Amino acid sequence: MAVKNIVETVRDTLAEEMRRNPRIVIVGEDVGPRGGVFRATQGLYDEFGPHRVIDSPLSESSIVAVGIGMALHGLRPVCEIQFADFIFPAMNQIVNEAALMRYRTNGAWTVPLVIRAPYGGGIGGGLYHSQSIEATFAHFPGLYVVTPGTPYDVKGLLRAALQAEDPVLFLENKKTYRLVKGEVPDEDYIVPIGQADVKRRGRDLSAFCYGLMLHECLKAADDLARDGIEVEVVDLRTIQPLDKAAILESVSRTSKALIVHEDNLSFGVGAEVAAIIAAEAFHDLDAPILRYGGPDVPGVPYSPPMQSFFMPDARRIAQAMRWLAEY
After folding, report:
1. Is 215 among the residues known to form the active site?
2. What's the Cα-to-Cα distance from 38 to each of 45, 52, 96, 107, rounded to whole Å?
3. Selected catalytic residue, list 129, 139, 261, 283
């Protein structure tokens, strides 16, 4: 057992799996000698060499296209998109090729491809280095979308992704890279894709979240606990597929639901979770379903005060929780 931050866990898990499976290769911008812009692949080039840790041109569409070709020919590529904001040039490759391959070939071909991308705001990155893309890509069946928020879940979900037969968009919240630390077992383990986790038990309301917002919700829940309000915090961990059973089970216990994500509020993950609850747990509810997210503006501003205005935080989440608890 070791205490690690999230970027260390990504790097160590990649190294462990590459030692175990010679078919795993890494492709991306600056992933080689430099070790990536966040140092998530630091040292891997020295250990595994240029044929398994491949520096690519600055072309996201070609990074993913090369990864698809590798996957179709027996390799297990890990394609790194340096910032999630720049994934959109690869949109066609991801949603029209990788995500559809098993369906269009009636199961004859699969694309065991992992696409890693750091996402989210709060680091002063401005419009082009702060976007949350999970809701956009969760719309496309055939593509898994995972968003681990703890080092333990990073290792377990990354190992699951590297063993999956279908493409996985593995989203890493960049603000949590060095901010969040936790215990990571030395032994091998898997966190199944599509399985949520209750990070804090409670009786008065359920808060559904993921990524950075998991930690903001836990802080808010601790604040409310001082007043005797017990919030259950459910880490979704996977956006596509959502763990519908865990969502409904939690709401059936607490009768109130808050969904928190840092992306723009409208048309986000929160809307889908709210629809599931409204359709299948309506009679368990004692209050309206409440969503809290970023404002509907084109991006996370660069200005520190405006960035703070955009990013949900524990204080404002606690206000939403308190309103719901007292409804």
Report:
1. no
2. 15, 19, 29, 36
3. 129
